[in-house]
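It would be a great kindness if you could assist me with a short task in structural biology. The matter concerns a single protein, recorded as an amino acid sequence and a row of backbone structure tokens. Kindly check, if you would, that the fold set down in the tokens agrees with what the sequence suggests. Thank you for your consideration; the sequence and its tokens are set out here:
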Amino acid sequence: MSQLLGIIQRLQTMQSMEGQEEVPQRQFEVNGKVICQVKYFSGTGTFEVEEYDKDKNKQTYQFDDIDAAAIEIFDIVQEEKAYR
């Protein structure tokens, strides 16, 4: 549960950066490997989650709810940990 809380806190920090010229973004890693990147678009209030597979192909998901975005990121992290 603390890992999910940490993800939510990182997303909240991104939301608090509204008004900057650059789109806030964060990467999430497992064992030093970037497994997804998240961007926050303050104009629409949406999060974009890019998930990377082992071949560095990506899938992109859009979320307008911070909890849904956090759960998706948590699932991606857990899946990568289970895969290793």
Q: What stands out?
A: Helices lie at 2-15, 66-83. The chain has one domain: 2-83. The two ends are 20 Å apart (CA to CA).
